[in-house]
Amino acid sequence: MYYVGLDVHQKKSSVCMLDDHGRKVKEFTVLGGPDRLVEELARLPRPLAVCFEASTGCGWLMDRIAPLAQRVEVAHPGQVRLIYRAKRKNDRIDAAKLATLLFLDQVPKAYIPDASVRAWRSLVEFRRRTVEKRTRTKNGLRALLRGCGPGGAGLCPGTPPSGGPRKGLWAKKGLAVLRGWPLPTMADRLRRDLLLDELEQYNRQIQQLEVELDRMATEHAGVALLQTIPGVGPRTAEVVLAYIDNPRRFARNKQVGAYFGLVPCQDASADVNRLGHITRQGPATVRKYLVEAAWQGIRRSPSLGAYSRRIGQGKKERRKIALVATAHHLVRVMHGMLRSGEVWRETELEPVSPGAPAQPQELAAR
């Protein structure tokens, strides 16, 4: 068996090859893109084990290398840096380190889903970015109206109306009124028309994306299962399932919270245990949607509401802590539901003494 470490870049890549005794037998640089790298790997002697760091396009590269090697490992970049903290670093050294980790069977593996799940994730992320662009466009329109004095500010949501629609500025009737609203200067009218054109374009794109996402959701029963949770809609369910992918790859529910960065940083020594902010590791999109779902779940579910009140302890300064803790609890429940296939079941609350916060029992889905 030969162990090959790759340091891959768009224009050149470094390759280091070790034999079954861990001795370096070949080291070279490939000029060109990933296609050229795959051609050079095809010329190496067999059998091969290959390792490279996760980056953009690592899934495609893994699929191309898989027919050439008996074993392909994708290393987690952050954890590789924890193993090798060196003063001297270059592409050749990095390739040798990856080959050594592969030979020692100590590669910190990154999970790479199949092509269909990668496409699902990319579409979810593309919709999120498009929604953010639409929000910036709406904020630009609000700023334009407020900058035009009381006549324009009367159209903005949350301000007293002055002849404009009282509700639904972003509905069809509201947008029609906004397009014909008299603004003081030609420059303001031009900005208004261009921003409205952007808003119309983003609305159309988001509608197309959601149609495709809804179609993809029908292929995954877990999306409908997670929507049985109060406050969890199709967008939250699909993003959680797309990033969990296979719930069996997590041995415990606690690992799911750590995977999505919802556990606190820890600095413990002897009897001192300091907990800080959440780690924020993993996909930020999932944390965003989970927090939004937690807000709705606290309002709609007695169990989630009681859980949040218990963490918050009735203190204003603990509201955010309680919200993040509820999001953490929610994703662990989701993982349990995906493993067991059970729908959400609202649990009865344990009796508590007067004045004490209610405490929910463990959810059956867990």
Secondary structure topology:
Layout: E1 2-8, E2 12-18, E3 24-31, H1 34-42, E4 48-53, H2 58-65, E5 71-75, H3 77-83, H4 91-104, H5 115-147, H6 150-153, H7 172-179, H8 186-217, H9 221-226, H10 234-244, H11 253-259, E6 264-269, E7 272-278, H12 284-300, H13 302-312, H14 319-340
Parallel strand pairs: 1-4, 4-5
Antiparallel strand pairs: 1-2, 2-3, 6-7
Characterise this structure.
With 366 residues, this protein is an alpha/beta fold. It has three domains: 2-104, 2-Layer Sandwich (Nucleotidyltransferase, domain 5); 115-219; 222-340, no CATH class. The protein is built from 14 helices and seven strands. Strands 3-2-1-4-5 form a five-stranded mixed beta sheet. The chain has a two-stranded antiparallel ribbon with strand order 6-7. Helix 10 crosses helix 12 and helix 12 (284-300) packs across helix 14 (319-340). Mean pLDDT is 88; it is low at 351-366.
Low-pLDDT runs of 5+ residues are 351-366
How many beta-strand segments?
Answer: 7
How much of the sequence lies in strands comes to: 5-15%
Shape: globular
Radius of gyration: 26 Å
Give the mean pLDDT.
88
Order of helices and strands: EEEHEHEHHHHHHHHHEEHHH
> CA-to-CA gap between the ends?
43 Å
What helical percentage do the residues reach? 40-55%
Biggest β-sheet strands, sense, barrel: 5 strands, mixed
